[in-house]
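Hi U.,

Before I forget, here's the chain from the pilot set. I'm dumping it here mostly so it's searchable later in email.
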Amino acid sequence: METRGWLLAEQSEDDYCKKKGLVMKKVDLIVIGGGPAGLAAAIEARKCGVKDIIIVERAQELGGILQQCIHTGFGLKIFKEELTGPEYADRFIKQLKSNDIQYMLSTMVIGITGERVVTVVNTKKGRIKIKAEAIILAMGCRERSRGSLNIPGTRPAGVYTAGTAQRLINMEGYLPGKRVIILGSGDIGLIMARRMTLEGAEVKMVCEIMSCPGGLTRNIVQCLEDYNIPLKLNHTVVNVHGSKRLEGVTIAKVDENKNPIFGTEQYIECDTLLLSVGLIPENDLSVEAEVEIDPITRGPSVNDSMETSIRGIFACGNVVHVHDLVDNVTEESRVAGRGAAEFILEVSHGDALFGKYKHEKI
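Structure:
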């Protein structure tokens, strides 16, 4: 765990704080999440004049999902060049440090209120309460698991989400399996089809329940067609087989209602099933703060400044809605950073002072 430039009072409960005479830590801006959205939002807020910013990140490093995305394709819009995920993240991390923006790693947010009080916990400081003038929600998203798909069958080892498999290979140096079926043609699944092939595994096919691929066209070409990996549209996995380790799956064709067609079942031997079946915005904290959630995107409803239904709480990136490109996450997060800065500086210092700061170059 790393904490830069500040000291917070450890708190177990509000009564304890009062008894000990401790004052709740107050900051201008808390950014929850240190991935591409949180980094871009914090840097933009700093450029707009916000001085006291803290990023809270639950992982051991900044950068979020970018750190495991070692393929190229990032930065074409923002930097006008093709970068890997870690290279893209590194550019923002360097900006963060050069602007002396504080951050806490290995720190979990366990509570957030509409009054903009955030409770965090880590192994070094214990439980900490922070009161902020504004909050930016940048928690990203999570992958759908087998449980959310209700695939019947046994529960052997060898069933992974595509993102988990990506981290195992690219960051942990572990190959999940040798004979692979991929369910879903999302971009992570397509990229993992190529990655597994390059590592010596046999990717037998990618099954997609829809009638068209879910990922970018460039990934269909570069990750499947270039490696002669079959893409079976209108197909899904209907059963999982194996006791300790996955032994095979049964796939079937589906009708226009996405229901399996009887008689089209096919058993395929494999030891690994990767799931690339969609992403879900991480909005448990948003719900706890009673932020209004859009029923379609499943992310917070936001205005043009990326402000949620609660004054002073902003949201950006995949926590709002899932983006295809990280460059788009960056652009949207900069809007949230500017919106939060305007709110903070107008509330704290008045319109005149905000006019002085908003064009400041840092």
